[in-house]
Amino acid sequence: MGRRVLRLGMAGGGEGAFIGAIHRAAAALDGEWRLVAGAFSSDSERNRRSGEGLGVDAARTYASFDAMLAGENALPPEERIDAVTIVTPNHLHTPMSIAALEAGFHVFCEKPMALNLAEGRAIAAAVRGTGRHYGLAFTYSGYPLVEEARARVARGDLGAIRLVQVEYSQGWLSRAIDRDGNKQAEWRTDPARAGLGGCLGDIGTHAFQLAEHVSGLRVDHLCADLTTHVEGRRLDDDVSVLLRFGGGARGVLRASQVAAGDENGLKLRVHGEHGGLEWAQMEPNTLTLRWLDRPAEIVRAGGPGLADTVAVRMRTPAGHPEGYIEAFANLYRAFASRLRDSAATGASAPGSADWFPSIEEGVRNMAFVETVISNAGSDNKWSQLLVD
Ligand SMILES: NC(=O)c1ccc[n+]([C@@H]2O[C@H](COP(=O)([O-])OP(=O)(O)OC[C@H]3O[C@@H](n4cnc5c(N)ncnc54)[C@H](O)[C@@H]3O)[C@@H](O)[C@H]2O)c1
Asked: According to CATH, where is 3.40.50.720 located in the chain?
């Protein structure tokens, strides 16, 4: 029997939006998903135009998210959407996620999962209560060579891990473009729509997830400094955090949106007793390993020597670069595979073909944001990261 193409409804991602179009391309890339419904914008005319432009049936281009849930549930099961994808600004993630879960739909949501930890826990409770699946768009953990890095650390190639250094350096908020009509900048600097963190919530969260995912370690204490460089901005635009991991490893997380001139400079380095690895998002198809006792290795996507779990995350032979959209597509494919396997419950092991960032990672991420903010605002040197 052929594989059924899953049906997707989108919240947000209307004309002029950034990430919605990336999600649509990624969901479609492997033929796993078909976009059949949406509430693309709170502006009714833009919503209508967006649905039309995307070839979504006018009857399934809904005036609001709630109308989409009700309208889809009124359809026969064989027509109705399987899952919603939420690509709106952050303040809508919690109400939309909970409403969709309670209406019986699986949820794939953009990061950060919520505005704060209490909201994150409320979504987790709804996931537990409804038994629906919930995935998060921590894009960078979808790259093939991030999986290679994770697998090498997990199988002990580097020895016991001592250092985890992660940097996420952007420059696009170096000026007050949030007050000059830049839509993406405007809500990201508004605490009511972005959440507790500015740069911290927007990209510090990616850095934190990547550091824990690849190292396999969990942060237990941190010491943070938050700054707002652009005058009048209401949320942080620059973050420095010292990290202590369970087991004794130490780390540093730097995230900035005022590193003038920088593009999307996400870079991770992990060092153990025998050597270290380095991966950078702007050169995602190269992983560099350097050793104490032997020459350095350059590992290439699609090349020899990769872990078995990497091949399933690639579509082209070596030398045909895959990137951002494909990394997203890997998460969509894994989410689809989990949904198809109706017996599957809970999260599978990192590395398996149906692994995707889960509710647990989302909640840890929210705990990270809150702990950074409380530590940076206090005289404490170290604060414990408490998830529960
Ligand atoms: N994973 C990643 O790498 C990544 C990258 C960029 C953005 N994001 C996340 O994606 C989300 C969206 O970011 P963006 O940059 O695309 O924002 P954006 O401002 O470009 O787009 C937001 C969209 O949501 C729509 N919207 C707002 N209120 C709505 C409502 N009530 N109903 C339906 N639609 C509504 C807007 O009309 C717009 O189309 C954020 O949570 C952000 O953190 C993630």
From this structure: 6-139
Which residue, by CA, sits nearest to atom 5 of ligand 1?
Answer: 19
Place of tokens 């949904």: 339
- Beta-bridge partner residues of 222: 243, 383
pLDDT digits 0-9 by tens, 180-218: 999 999 999 999 999 999 999 999 999 999 999 999 999
> How are beta strands 134-136 and 33-39 bridged, if at all?
unpaired
CATH class as words, domain 143-318+358-384: alpha beta
- Ligand 1 pocket (Cβ < 6 Å) reads 11-14, 17-20, 39-42, 65, 87-90, 92, 110-111, 137, 139, 183-184, 187, 202
- Centre of ligand 1 to C-alpha 306, Å, is 35
Nearest protein Cα to ligand 1, atom 31: 42
Please give the number of the atom of ligand 1 that sits closest to the Cα of 65: 32
**Cα gap 207→93, rounded to integer Å:** 20
Say which CATH superfamily domain 6-139 falls into.
NAD(P)-binding Rossmann-like Domain (3.40.50.720)
pLDDT in tens, 304-321: 999 999 999 999 999 999
Cβ contact 230:176 at 8 Å: yes
Tell me how far the alpha carbon of residue 91 lies from the centroid of ligand 1, in angstroms.
10
342 CA to centre of ligand 1 in angstroms: 30
| DSSP alpha helix (H) spans, the chain | 19-29, 44-53, 65-73, 93-102, 117-130, 144-154, 183-188, 191-194, 199, 205-215, 308-311, 324-340, 359-376
Q: What is the CA radius of gyration of the chain?
A: 21
Q: Which of 88, 146, 183 to mutate to test the pocket of ligand 1 (most atoms within 8 A of CB)?
A: 88
Atom of ligand 1 at shortest range from CA of 202: 43
**How many Å lie between the centroid of ligand 1 and the Cα of residue 184?**
8
CA 277 to chain centre: 22
The proportion of the chain whose per-residue pLDDT surpasses 70, expressed as a percent, equals 98
Question: Is the full-model pTM beyond 0.90?
Answer: yes
pLDDT-derived band at 388, boundaries 50, 70, 90? confident
